[in-house]
Specification:
This protein is mainly α. The chain has 16 helices and two strands. The longest helix has about 35 residues, at about 345-375. The two termini are about 35 Å apart. It is found in: Cell inner membrane; Cell membrane.
Length: about 375
């Protein structure tokens, strides 16, 4: 179980699953995989989803629940529990959102691809932490905290985009009922330390499933149910549940989603025939994140540091920007949502996410290694940070 919870493991498995998906989709097994992906499962005539949607809407809600528990902790007890702590990474995260959007729209504005502008805004926490674990030995605590806060804030932006931009024909009655169930879930979770532990756990599971179904039927993307439940649950029980779910999310949920999202045939066209959906994401993830986080992060260092040296340098911020360009999980989901009615654009955007994230992964490995070597050679600077 220790391996399944390590920072390196999910990044390695995600990468392997995505590579496997690409290989399968572009092999003789591709048509069979497509049939499985679009096969429907559920109660006929009552509630059915395709295998692909069970993964993207169902299993991924568990991942978002785990993310939301971490968000709740950081916002109440962790690195983002005050405006002072959150200000600098928030400014850097803002730059890491608007600059990639701007770069993407340079390629896509005025075309059907323009609707994919949210895709390059996300950062994959699992990958970012994996790169830090592999290459970041010796990095100072200040840089690690900044990177974690940055990735968490990026996740908040991604969640907001999913909730606001990709919601259509909302049934407010069902959504209101789901909200009531979330409140009941939160209140009941605060009774878990009583003697009726097992019945309460059963009731919580039923409430969680019912909330997910209602959110899905309301027209809001079903992963938002996981976010709402994770934020509503009492903190200590939520952290215990997160600890229990984490290995399963790392070994089943995220790899299955990566495999499912990467089942994309590589277009047999020349580079000049690829659409802006591909080129915009490919450039916006590595370049936009480095410029946005680097420039706005540098500006953020000027906030609250009058009369004292900033804890981070421009080199640290460039490493953070490269890590931010590893979009992967949330970017893949945003690709599916943005181009749900345009499968060819969705496939090209997915390839852009995979390629752009790989470029960022390589850059991040190099830059994080460089900064880690620097701080290992100058331990006094690391301690001062």
């Amino acid at each position: 179980m220790t391996l399944l919870r390590s920072a390196r493991f999910p990044a390695i498995v995600l990468l392997a699953a995505a590579a496997l998906g690409l290989v399968i989709a572009n092999s003789p097994l591709g048509p069979a995989a497509d049939e499985v992906q679009h096969a429907y499962l559920g109660i006929p005539g009552v509630f059915e989803l395709s295998v692909g949607h069970w993964i993207a809407d169902g299993l991924l809600a568990v991942f978002f629940f785990v993310v939301a528990v971490e968000l709740q902790f950081e916002l109440t007890s962790g690195q983002l529990n005050s405006a002072r702590k959150a200000l600098q990474p928030a400014i850097a995260a803002f730059g890491g959102v608007i600059v990639p959007i701007g770069i993407y729209l340079i390629f896509a504005l005025g075309t059907e691809s323009a609707r994919g502008w949210p895709i390059p805004t996300a950062t994959d926490i699992a990958f970012a932490l994996g790169v830090l674990a592999v290459f970041g030995k010796g990095l100072p605590p200040a840089l690690r905290i900044f990177l974690l806060a940055l990735a968490i804030l990026d996740d908040i932006v991604g969640i907001i985009f999913i909730a606001v931009l990709f919601t259509t024909d909302v049934n407010y009655g069902l959504l209101g009922l789901a909200a009531l169930l979330v409140v009941a879930f939160g209140l009941l979770s605060r009774q878990l330390d009583t003697r009726a532990r097992v019945p309460i756990i059963v009731a919580l599971v039923i409430l969680a499933i019912a909330t997910w179904v209602l959110v899905y039927l309301s027209g809001v993307h079903a992963t938002i149910a996981g976010v709402a439940l994770g934020l509503a649950m009492a903190q200590q029980p939520a952290l215990r549940v997160r600890h229990t779910l984490e290995p399963w999310v790392n070994v089943i949920v995220l790899p299955l989603f990566a495999l499912n999202a990467a089942l994309v045939p590589i277009p047999q066209v020349s580079p000049s025939e690829l659409t802006p959906a591909f080129w915009g994401v490919l450039v916006a993830l590595p370049v936009g994140k480095i410029i946005g986080i680097g420039v706005f992060g540098w500006l953020s260092l000027r906030v609250g540091h009058r009369g004292q040296a900033p804890a981070l340098t421009i080199g640290d911020l460039l490493a953070a920007g490269a890590l931010g360009g590893i979009g992967f999980t949330v970017s893949l989901l945003l690709s599916e949502l943005a181009f749900s009615t345009h499968p060819e654009l969705r496939d090209e955007a997915t390839l852009g996410v995979l390629a752009g994230s790989m470029i960022s992964l390589v850059l991040a490995g190099l830059l994080v290694s460089w900064r880690a070597r620097h701080f290992r050679r100058h331990p006094v600077q690391a301690e001062a940070s």
